[in-house]
Amino acid sequence: MPKPRTLKQVNLKKMRALVRVDFNVPWRIKFVLPTLKYLIKQKAKIILISHSGEPKGKRTKKFSLKPMSDELRELLKKKIIFSPDVVGWNVKKRIEMMGYGDVLLLENIRFNSGEEKNSPRLAKDLAALGDIFINEAFAVSHRPHASVVGIPRYLPSAIGFLFEKEIQELDKILKRPKRPLIAIIGGAKISTKLKVINKFLRIADQVLIGGALANTIFASQGIFMADSVIEKEVFPEIKKIDLKNPKLFLPIDLGIWNKNRVYYKDVSGLFEKEKALDIGPKTVNLFCNLIEKSKMLVWNGPLGLVEEKPFDKSSLEISEAIARSRAYSVAGGGDTIALIRKIKKEKAFNYLSTGGGAMLDYLANETLPGIEALRK
Fold first, then answer.
1. Which of 7, 245, 365, 372 is most exposed by smallest CB count within 10 Å?
2. Phi and psi dihedrals of 7, rounded to 5?
3. Which of 130, 187, 357, 370 is catalytic?
């Protein structure tokens, strides 16, 4: 299967480069700087497309990208032109007046309802602004949106340096794993992670499950989980997981909240009003022992309610275990990365993916809609 063209494989000199970036999470901005600096050096006119939040096609000050233009100016030490519009005559005029090496940031693409509908008209209008399309938004490339899969129909396209790096790192896990390979999968919704759980049960040596995902699995097996967060609607799908697979490790004890009390108990069913919000110390000890022996590790999703103490305890201890291990480690997912950044453990990981859902989809399917659009 052909790989998408990379930045250095296309002619960019004095071209209008339409670049899809992801500034939805501010810390991601610095990761696209190498691509932007390269485009500036190539004397391209750089037109940035991004989104913020979920405005559902409505213009909202809260989700404006205007503040991002100021932050980008500080990082690039360069004037950033901001367009309050996404397409139209005013945008075209601004691009005509740009000098080569200038940067223009368009307003939130999701202010246009055609973005999430993958409107061909919006894709055509956006494509008319550029000579070449660069996808540097791995984190949204699992979304079949106009600025991700629509534009490549009308322009020669390539991926940026960050996107290229994301694929390289995840391919190490999929195609060149060091063993033992461990996958740690947590978070709230198992519905988004069923495919990747099954994939890792095939290719990994151990799959460690925590968070509300585990609660749903227990509940699907008839274990009473009281007030814990579960997804009843996915019970039939859980039957597709081989829960007797010796590679699968579920929690053996849980952190419980009940009437403002916090305590730990073995998994055997909860009492009324109890709520499981973390994995327990026995499980943490088991997981840490496995991590210590691993040679490669991928982590997506916290193992407890990390926003509330002490239910961040297991995820913090797992982070420490990964930092102590000699495993080649990759982590992704918004909550996971936020936790790692909060405790300043970024350097303990070999790679932190900018993608959450995109990372999971790539690991499960070995491609993304955004990649397929570029290949075509």
1. 245
2. -55, -40
3. 357
DSSP string, 328-354: EEEEESHHHHHHHHHTT-GGGSSEE-S
DSSP track, 295-318: SEEEEES-SS-TTSTTTTHHHHHH
In the CATH hierarchy, which top-level class contains the domain 7-164? alpha beta
Q: What is the pLDDT of residue 1?
A: 66
Please write the tens of the pLDDT for every residue from 12-45. Answer: 999 999 999 999 988 899 999 999 999 999 999 9
Distance CA 79, CA 77 (A): 7
Question: Residue 291: how many CB atoms within 10 A of its CB?
Answer: 24
**Residue 334 falls in the annotated catalytic set:** yes
Domains 7-164 and 177-364 belong to one CATH topology: yes
Give, in words, the CATH class of 177-364. alpha beta
Marked catalytic residue, from 5, 189, 295, 345: 189
- Catalytic residue chosen out of the listed positions 28, 143, 193, 199: 28
pTM of the model: 0.94
In one-letter notation, the amino acid at residue 218 is F
Amino acid present at 12: L
Task: Express the helix, strand and coil content of the chain in percent, nearest 5 each.
Answer: 45, 20, 40
Sorted by where each begins, the domain ranges of the chain are 7-164, 177-364
pLDDT beneath 50: ranges in the chain: none
Q: 101, 124, 295, 334: which is the annotated catalytic residue? A: 334
